[in-house]
Amino acid sequence: MASTLHSFASAADLAGSLADKVAKTLSAAIAARGSASIAVSGGSTPKAFFQALSTHDIAWDKVTITLVDERFVPADNARSNHLLVDANLLQNKAKAARFVPLYQPAASVEEAARLATVKSAEIGIPFDVVILGMGGDGHTASFFPGGSNLAEALDASTPRGIITMEAEGAGEPRLTFTFSSLQDAALLVLHIEGEGKKEVLAKAEGSGDEAEMPIRAILRRATSPVEIYWAP
Ligand SMILES: O=C(O)[C@H](O)[C@@H](O)[C@H](O)[C@H](O)COP(=O)(O)O
Q: Whose CA is nearest to atom 4 of ligand 1?
């Protein structure tokens, strides 16, 4: 599917504009069917966007927020994406939103994925908004090059839900929504910042296997148009 690049003069300008776009999309979904959903990424890039979005005056009590992926750590662990969302997005007006975590206290990451899949099924499909990030290795969500379940994660026929991923570059074992869960969001955003990430994107947009740079699966096969938000 096609992608559109939205470039901004600064990260602050990007955060404000993306927050406006997402707030409008969530409000339109609420107007249309009484509820809305958004899956966001962790990492360092989205913090300013989360903070900007949290101040928007929309019907947050009708919004469900979840994560695109999560490290297999509890929410009080510094590596937790839940902790990042709690501290930066579930604040201000957005405090009223419902949050559905991916991490589940379970004996194994596989059991946690099974539990998370059941819980996430309540959110409804497709997501109204998905915000993806991208690592320097071309991963997105927890679709890491060399990942233990990468082929399954990227296979369009894999049922929607959460699967596990382990990879050298991932740190802890991961819990990640599958490609099939993310690729048809009403608003599908790739949010990246810095010259380095722009170079990684250019390489990803070139030829090569999806397994080498998994973001290629989104850029090449997502049902929804990919809105790329970039600032230096
Ligand atoms: O759990 C995570 O880390 C994210 O979901 C991951 O996919 C992230 O989006 C990229 O690694 C980019 O991270 P930065 O924004 O920190 O570069």
A: 42
Query: pLDDT under 70 in the chain at which residues?
Result: 1
Residue 168: predicted pLDDT: 94
Ligand 1 atom with the shortest distance to the CA of 132: 9
Confidence (pLDDT) at 169: 87
**133 alpha carbon to ligand 1 midpoint, in Å?**
5
* Cβ 187 vs Cβ 21: under 8 Å: yes
Ligand 1 is surrounded, with C-beta below 6 A, by: 41-45, 68-69, 81, 133-135, 139-141
Closest residue by CA, ligand 1 atom 13? 43
CA–CA distance, 97 with 50 (Å, rounded to integer): 13
What is the pTM (predicted TM-score) of this model?
0.98
Question: For a substitution probing ligand 1, which of 14, 18, 41, 150 has the most ligand atoms within 8 Å of its CB?
Answer: 41
For the residues of 158-194, what is the DSSP string, one character each?
SPSSEEEE--GGG-S-EEEE-HHHHTT-SEEEEEEES
Q: For the chain, state the CA radius of gyration.
A: 16
Q: Which CATH number fits domain 17-224: 3.40.1360.10, 3.30.499.10, 3.40.50.300, 3.40.50.1360?
A: 3.40.50.1360
Measure the CA–CA gap between 109 and 173, rounded to whole angstroms: 7
Sign of CA dihedral 99, 41, 120, 181: positive
Tokens 């009223």 sit on residue: 96
